[in-house]
Design a protein that fits this description.
heterodimer; A: TATA-Binding Protein; 33% helix; elongated; B: mainly alpha; 2 domains
């Protein structure tokens, strides 16, 4: 009942601007235009037709390109603000208070405000993610609002369009039909040669090519929507793993979040460019910059626990593969990837001491303390023992007489020991740290004299699993196909028909690259002697200019 | 002569060719009364021939340097920026053969010249690759991204020609001001080249000790006279200029001094141009573009974005994400360079929507194209030099 019936008899849905059949303008506004607005073929778009219910209003809001572009610009500006100072992720602090202190100390008042406004974690903030979400909705709504009516109207194009449609095209010409019937035939032949699809019906011709380029924008929007969907999926458990594993040379450790995989680090390798070896080509650069690293690498063996093994049982591990993990060359297995991300050189591994008589300096024997897994008691020489009463791997001083440790890493190891020798069967207590020995319970006869340390390197590895990667890849691929389709191809149409008064009318339209369309139309005109056409837009701008000159 | 020397000479020859070609295109534009006169065709043909000659020599630089280094010469600021300049010329040649307009050459070549001159102010020696860059994605990602940016730059050149022709410079308008501001910025780049060349010719060097933001003692060597001193600086070289002001620890006073010198040289240069010609640069250039075809420039500006946008997306976002996933274990990490690539991409997406759906043609579209180029240059210059991030290799 709401349908608009055109003069030609065709029934158009409410909101149609150009008749889907003959192309006559159906609104007063379109009637007045010198050139028709050919976007979406003048078809009825939901957003332009309904504006009553709440749903209509939300739909219309998100389908507007103005809103879409505004969202893009707001996101763009916000993203730029986030690069003024480094984001929390790149700041060398972990706890809330440390981070706040860092921004204040390094960047002063500005840094403090930046942190307090939450700009230091801008990309993770609720409002930034909301903006991205709104852009996603806008992509979906705006695309649907346009692609459906556009598809419908391009599908059922009639060959003969009404003259009011023809003369409102940007390229239009009308004049004598010098060749009679053969002008359409010749046009058809030439247009086919130019790879147009040509339809001829009772004295009217429609030539069209590259219609698929019109779908480009919708294909690339679909790609973006899929991409954003993939990104959202990562929030769900099981889709995404991000773990860090510090592994020392010689250690075998379970790989977190993996089903029974273990990793053994055989060796960490750090290589730098050697000035004498790096040929004369790089000599200058190395001299200017100093050392340049050439390789960070961890040689590893990947194991898997047999399926019937009990939890924690690490015997009978099955070797899967032996590999070198380098930067840019992660170790990959069953959807997981292990990356070389960081390292610590020369972590203390063990310390060697000698138990000696302080006066005579006569040694009773040696002991070696493993700094990661120290033992409770050590047997020294024939009949002495050293008991480890306390171990403080990262000794930081005393608090209320108690030794403290900053971290579980053996950066500054200290020990509280009891030394039992045949001469001192009750045992003597001593506190041993690097470069200091305390005797808290009185003067001792014996002491532990430091002999040597053994060190090893530690590799910092990152373990990732990202089940959404293929969705993101699909989205990216679709986006690329869509932009190429839309940007590198053009939709061109040429209409030629005999008018009722025996003349010939020509009109042409393209979504872009009018330059190439004119060239093709010229070729057809030459062969079929079509009436000369005019570029009505150029005429218009020239008229505008003349008017402007007059008024100034 | 080593391969590296040959490479350097080829680049110099290319540079000279571009200068000559600019003059020839100038002849094509000046010599013609109507738009398609015989003289325009003759000069234009000569111009494009010399441009192609220079481009071949430029490619020769690229290939020989690639062979000498064993990796694609896009691994530091000098190499990347030079490649970017070269590709602008390549993109211009491509577009010239579609549209055959000498106006584009008259403006695209100087832009390329300025960019290559700017590039050569950075350390030019060959450097070995650090572990993070050892990947064939370096070649694929960087070359594609630079190619996309260079095609987008052509759009800005067309936009600039359009604006020079259409902005009314007889009246005081916002447009006139901003157009001259763009010209002034280009002169500032020349100012940077002039100041760097002057001080490096004088072999200027001055060392200072200072305390960095982590409160650790450091040393730094200036290659321009220190206008600004680092936090708690002390001069180590005997005849060093005493800095005018001391900066807080987060400001790199060495870079600030370099930038300030560029500003001083650039402003003096600009002042001289205005003093001698008694005209603004826009007014100086306007007669050259009088006969440029506006519709054609608008079309070139738009098509360059259409051709460049997909290439940029592929190189600067998609290939970048694939490589980031391989090297850094995540395809996206909000690193400043990444963010600015996204900003560039969003900007051109907005450009296309405004043009397609809201009918922003002509002057509006030309302004957008110029702003897009400014964003690209910001990502190239400011993000590398000011905002530190994972991409600060130079």
């Amino acid at each position: 009942m709401d349908n608009i019936i055109c003069v030609c008899g065709h029934e158009n849905p409410k909101g149609t601007i150009l008749c889907g059949n003959c192309g006559r303008p159906l609104t007063d506004e379109a009637e007045k235009q010198k050139l028709l607005d050919m976007r979406y073929e003048g078809s009825a778009r939901r957003s332009q037709t309904y504006n009553k219910s709440m749903i209509d209003k939300v739909w219309n809001f998100f389908s507007s390109v103005k809103i879409g572009v505004s969202l893009i610009v707001i996101i763009l500006v916000a993203a730029a603000i986030g690069t003024i100072l480094p984001q929390v992720l790149y700041v060398p602090a972990t706890t809330e208070t440390d981070i706040a202190a860092y921004y204040e100390r390094v960047y002063g008042t500005f840094g403090e405000i930046y942190y307090k406004l939450g700009l230091s974690d801008l990309y993770g903030s609720w409002w930034f993610q909301t903006l991205i979400g709104m852009l996603g909705i806008s992509l979906i709504v705006a695309s649907l609002d346009r692609v459906i009516p556009l598809y419908k109207s391009l599908k059922k194009q009639r060959t003969r369009r009404h003259e009011s449609f023809m003369k409102r095209q940007r390229l239009f010409g009308k004049g004598q039909n010098t060749l009679g019937d053969s002008s359409l035939l010749k046009s058809e032949e030439k247009l086919k040669e130019l790879r147009y699809n040509v339809k001829v019906e009772n004295g009217a011709l429609l030539a069209e090519k590259g219609r698929f380029s019109r779908w480009g924008p919708y294909v690339n929007h679909a790609g973006l929507i899929i991409f954003l969907f993939g990104v959202m999926l990562r929030a769900l458990p099981g889709f995404y793993v991000d773990e860090t594993l510090w592994i020392r040379e010689g250690e075998t450790r379970a790989i977190p979040e993996t089903p029974g995989f273990y990793l053994e680090s055989k060796e960490f390798i750090l290589e730098t460019y050697d000035k004498s070896q790096a040929d004369e080509v790089f000599g200058e650069a190395i001299e200017r910059v100093g050392t340049i690293a050439s390789n960070y690498q961890t040689d590893v063996i990947l194991y898997q626990k047999p399926e019937d093994a009990l939890p924690g049982d690490t015997k009978n591990l099955k070797q899967i593969k032996e590999e070198s993990i380098q930067v840019n060359k992660p170790l990959k297995f069953e959807g997981f990837a292990v990356y070389q991300m960081d390292f610590r050189l020369d972590e203390l591994r063990s310390m060697q001491f000698s138990l000696i008589n302080k006066e005579t300096e006569e040694p009773l024997g040696d002991l070696s303390i493993d700094l990661v897994n120290p033992e409770k008691t050590y047997k020294v020489g024939e009949d002495s023992t050293v008991e480890l009463l306390g171990y403080y791997p990262d000794f930081s001083g005393f608090e209320d007489g108690e030794p403290q440790t900053k971290s579980p890493l053996p950066n500054n190891p200290a020990f509280l020991v009891k030394m039992i020798t045949p001469q001192t069967p009750k045992g003597e207590t001593s506190f041993v740290a690097i470069k200091q020995t305390l005797e808290p319970l009185g003067e001792n006869e014996y002491k532990l004299a430091f002999q040597n340390v053994e060190t090893r390197d530690v590799s910092g590895l990152t373990i990732r699993k990202d089940k959404t990667l293929w969705i993101l890849a699909l989205g990216g691929l679709l986006f690329m196909i869509g932009v190429v389709q839309g940007a590198y191809f053009n939709h061109r149409r040429i209409w030629i028909h005999e008018t009722t008064d025996g003349q010939l009318a020509v009109a042409a339209h393209t979504n872009k690259n009018w330059f190439a369309l004119k060239k093709e139309l010229d070729q057809v005109s030459e062969i079929a002697q079509l009436p000369a056409y005019e570029d009505q837009q150029e005429l218009e701008t020239e008229v505008d200019k003349k008017d402007g000159e007059k008024s100034s | 002569m080593t391969l590296v020397d040959i490479s350097g000479n080829l680049l110099f020859f290319a540079f000279v060719c571009y200068l000559v070609a600019t003059l020839l295109f100038g002849g094509a534009v000046k010599g013609s009364k109507t738009e398609e006169s015989a003289s325009e065709k003759r000069w234009g043909k000569l111009g494009i021939t010399v441009t192609i000659l220079g481009f071949i020599s430029n490619l020769g630089y690229f290939v020989t340097r690639w062979i000498a280094a064993g990796h694609a010469p896009v691994s530091n600021l000098f190499e990347f920026t030079t490649a970017f300049g070269m590709m602008i010329v390549g993109a211009f040649i491509l577009i010239y053969f579609i549209y055959k307009t000498p106006f584009l050459g008259l403006f695209a070549l100087p832009v390329a010249i300025i960019i290559i001159a700017y590039a050569s102010m950075f350390p030019r020696e060959l450097n070995p690759l650090i572990p993070a860059l050892k990947s064939y994605w370096l070649t694929v990602h960087v070359i594609t991204a630079a190619l996309g940016e260079s095609i987008l730059a052509i759009s800005a050149v067309a936009g600039l020609i359009y604006l020079l022709k259409h902005v009314d410079i007889t009246k005081r308008t916002k447009q006139r001001f901003w157009l001259e501001a763009v010209m002034f910025t280009l002169v500032l780049v020349l100012g940077f080249v002039a100041s760097s060349t002057t001080f490096s010719f004088m072999d200027y060097e001055a060392s200072f000790s200072y305390v960095d933001k982590e409160e650790k003692p450091q040393e730094i060597t200036y290659d321009t006279p220190a206008l600004f001193g680092m936090n708690q600086y002390e001069a180590l070289s005997p005849n060093a200029m005493v800095p005018l002001a001391e900066m807080p620890p987060i400001v790199n006073a060495k870079k600030l001094s370099t930038v300030t010198w560029a500003l001083i040289f650039g402003t003096v240069l600009y002042g001289l141009i205005r003093l001698i010609s008694r005209k603004s640069i826009s007014a100086l250039l306007q007669p050259l573009v009088k006969k440029a075809n506006s519709t054609l420039m608008d079309e070139i500006g738009y098509r360059a974005v259409l051709i460049g946008f997909p290439v940029f997306t592929l190189g600067a976002l998609i290939f970048a994400m694939i490589w980031a996933q391989e090297a850094w274990s995540r395809f996206w990490g909000w690193d400043p360079k990444e963010v600015w690539a996204l900003i560039t991409w969003l900007f051109y997406a907005a450009f296309l929507h405004l043009r397609l759906s809201r009918g922003w043609h002509g002057e509006k579209s030309a302004w957008l194209a110029v702003i897009g180029f400014i964003i690209i240059m910001f990502n190239l210059i400011a993000v590398n030099l000011i905002i530190a991030g994972l991409h600060s290799y130079a």
